[in-house]
Structures are given as structure tokens and as C-alpha cells.
Design brief:
20 helices, 417 residues, mainly alpha, globular, single chain, Growth Hormone, Chain: A
Length: 417
């Protein structure tokens, strides 16, 4: 959980700053398209997530989960600190946005490999009847990372003037990541390898090329996992990708610090609902909890934007809190569900690639699409239609996925589709 929190803190401060800072400091020459391109740089990194997932999945299924977690943490941390040192376009010209995008790509590679290892290490250590709850702990690293990212940026924004924040204040969270790297490395180097993977290693049953049997025998599961996560990720990236923060400050003219604090409060709600989702999936099944979460997500989509448009802080917090309920129920069971989908020899590859592809299909350009829809139609409700459609895709997909709660994780017999 701590390592995943650090990973996503690093990932999210970029996404939030894309809406608040980078458009004016790195892409201002593009005029009205600056914000769209700034959001697009969030999406570009997503195309490198599957690459990171394939590399980390291959090595994770070959040499172990723990080694990959250490590697991905280092890659994310170093690239984040370097982002905080990139001069603006006013200083070095076109080289500035190019360097920024290259470092964001490194973040994407790390994020693609991180989740699978964290999820498997938690779930493969868990008792069979508590995998959902154990697996929810790396999941809550996301809302905690969002909470910390918004909290630190809100603190910096509150202690600096608007000019100071844009000039240098935004860099502080990126540079402070060096401390978090040290904490994460201290913890991850002391975590034991997954007992399920150790069993496979001792019998020399690892696959020499895990991706081949994965796509030969389990490709329907890879697609189903990707579609379910896409439905969750597109909606989640309204806050984690910075769209809500940008919309509230630029269109509704709310104070930057106020908006960041509202998102922090919603992150606490997301944390609680994610833990609840994992726990409930141990009692009622992964598929059932997913379906309830998607229905809630769908039902709240239009009321969410209606309350947001009031520009009232209390109603905005209420909207975000209830928005987080469906997100948590479709995110909490994910680590356990995806771990139970695949046999050990291809589990890291399968879980990581499903996750990475879902991120590309869902979150990659969700803020960019949302901004384009809002600008093109003149109403934020067009964004609600887009998110409702994504949610429906996830809900329909769950109908075709088998419940796998409690299956033996050490069983190397391929799961039936």
C-alpha cells in the first residue's frame, strides 16, 4: 500500500498540474489549444503502460513480483523528480515540452508494471477467504496518492501567490518525491516474495515467454479485464486526471485551493468505498460487487455534474463523495478478481496487461475527451453521456465473466473461459 501510494502520488501530481500549470508554462504558444494538448500529454503516457506491463509481467513471471516492484518504484520516483527540474518554454523553448513528455512516458512505463506486482504480492500472500480485503490495500494507494497530491498542491497554493505558484511553487511536490522514494525502497526491500510464486520457481514451472500462453489460452479474459477497468478508469480520471479541478477553476471560477481540498475530501470517500468493495467481494463475490458499483456509477453521472455546476462548495463535496462510491466498488475487488483470473505462470502478465490496456481505453484521453466535448457542445452534460456509455460497457462485460472467488491460486490448470 505504501509503495503504491508513492507511485500514484508521483503520477497524479503531473495529471493535476497538467490542468493547473503546464498549459500556461509549457504549451502557451498553442493558444486556445494549450489546455487540450496539456491534457493529451497525460494520455500519451498511457500508450506506454502496456509496454511497461509486458516488460514487468515477463520479468515478474520469470524472476518474481518483489524485484519488479522495486524497479518500478525507482523509475517512477526518478522521472518525477526530474519533471520538477524541467525549465519552462520561456527558458529553453520547444525543448521544454519535449523533455516533459519524455519524462511522462517514463512514468507511464512504471505505472504499467507497478499495479500487477503490487496486486499479486498482496493477494498471493492472503488467506483464500480474505483476498478481496488484502487486495484492496494496494488499491487504496490510488485514493491516498490522490489525497496526498491534492493536499500538497493545496498547501503550496495556499502559501504562495498565484504568480509564485506558477513560477516555482508547483515544483515542490515533484522534488519532495525524493523523500518518498527512500521510504518506499525501505519497505519494499523488506517484503518477502510471494509464496505462490516461490512454489512455481522451486518446481521450475515458470514460462519462458509468459505472454505467448497468455494470449493463446486466456485472451478473452485479457479483453474482459481491460473493458471492466476502462469503465472504472474513464470515470476516475475526471478527478485523478485533473479535469474536474480544471473545470471548477476555469469555468466555474472557484478558488484553486478550495477545489483541491474538495477533491481531497472525495479521495477519503474513495478510500473507504474501495476498502468496502474489497471486503464485500469476499462475502458476495467479485462480479456482484462490480455490478452494483457500475449501476451506482451510472445512476449518479448526471446528478454529479448538476451539483458541480451549482459552484457551491458543499454541494460539490457531496457530488464528489457520492461519485466515489461507485468508483470504489468497481476498484476495491480488482486486485483479487484479476489475480484469480489467471494461473501463476502468466498471472503477472495477465493482470498487468489487462490493467494497462484498460487504462489506455479508459483513462488515457478521458480528460482530453471531456474537455473537447464540453468545448464543442457548450455543455458539461455531454461529458456525462460519454462517461455513462463507458460505464455501460463495463456493466455489460461483467455479465460474461465467471465468478472466481476462492479458486486455488497455486492451481496451474488453465481456467476455463
Amino acid at each position: 500500500m505504501v509503495g503504491t501510494t508513492i507511485e500514484w502520488f508521483d503520477f497524479f501530481i503531473y495529471a493535476i498540474c497538467a490542468g493547473l500549470v503546464f498549459a500556461s508554462q509549457y504549451f502557451a504558444a498553442l493558444g486556445e489549444d494549450a489546455l487540450l494538448l496539456s491534457f493529451a500529454t497525460i494520455g500519451i503516457s498511457f500508450f506506454f503502460r502496456p509496454v511497461g506491463a509486458i516488460i514487468a509481467g515477463h520479468l515478474g513471471d520469470r524472476i518474481g513480483r518483489r524485484a519488479m516492484l522495486i524497479l518500478t518504484l525507482l523509475l517512477m520516483g526518478v522521472s518525477t523528480v526530474l519533471i520538477g527540474l524541467v525549465p519552462t518554454t520561456a527558458s529553453i523553448g520547444v525543448a521544454a515540452p519535449i523533455i516533459l513528455v519524455l519524462l511522462r512516458i517514463l512514468q507511464g512505463l512504471s505505472a504499467g508494471g507497478e499495479w500487477g506486482g503490487a496486486a499479486l504480492l498482496a493477494v498471493e500472500h492472503a488467506p483464500a477467504d480474505r483476498r478481496g480485503l488484502y487486495g484492496a490495500f494496494p488499491q487504496i494507494g490510488v485514493p491516498i496518492g490522490l489525497l496526498l497530491a491534492n493536499g500538497v498542491l493545496a498547501l503550496v497554493a495556499g502559501l504562495t501567490t498565484a504568480e509564485q505558484f506558477l513560477a516555482w511553487g508547483w515544483r515542490i511536490p515533484f522534488l519532495a518525491s525524493v523523500v518518498l522514494i527512500a521510504v518506499g525502497m525501505f519497505i519494499r526491500t523488506r517484503v518477502s516474495e510471494s509464496p505462490v510464486f516461490e512454489e512455481v520457481r522451486q518446481t521450475r514451472a515458470q514460462s519462458s515467454m509468459p505472454i505467448v500462453p497468455l494470449f493463446r489460452n486466456h485472451w478473452p479474459l485479457v479483453i474482459a479485464g481491460a473493458l471492466m477497468f476502462a469503465a472504472n478508469n474513464a470515470v476516475g480520471y475526471m478527478t485523478t486526471g485533473g479535469y474536474v479541478q480544471s473545470y471548477a477553476t476555469r469555468t466555474l471560477h472557484l478558488d484553486r485551493s478550495t477545489v483541491l481540498i474538495a477533491v481531497m475530501i472525495s479521495a477519503v470517500g474513495w478510500l473507504v468505498s474501495t476498502l468496502a468493495g474489497g471486503w464485500l467481494s469476499d462475502r458476495y463475490g467479485r462480479v456482484r460487487v462490480y455490478q452494483v458499483g457500475f449501476v451506482i456509477q451510472l445512476a449518479w453521472m448526471f446528478p454529479f455534474f448538476a451539483l458541480l455546476n451549482t459552484a457551491d462548495l458543499g454541494l460539490m463535496i457531496l457530488a464528489l463523495l457520492l461519485f466515489s462510491v461507485g468508483l470504489g466498488l468497481t476498484y476495491g475487488p480488482q486486485a483479487a478478481f484479476y489475480s484469480e483470473m489467471y494461473p501463476t505462470r502468466v498471472r503477472y502478465s495477465g493482470a498487468a496487461i489487462s490493467y494497462a490496456l484498460g487504462a489506455v481505453l479508459g483513462g488515457a484521453f478521458a480528460p482530453t475527451i471531456a474537455e473537447a466535448l464540453q468545448t464543442g457542445t457548450g455543455t458539461v452534460y455531454s461529458v456525462a453521456v460519454y462517461l455513462a456509455a463507458m460505464t455501460l460497457i463495463g456493466l455489460v462485460t461483467t455479465v460474461f465473466v465467471k465468478e472466481r472467488r476462492g479458486v486455488p491460486l497455486s492451481d496451474e490448470v488453465a481456467r476455463t473461459q
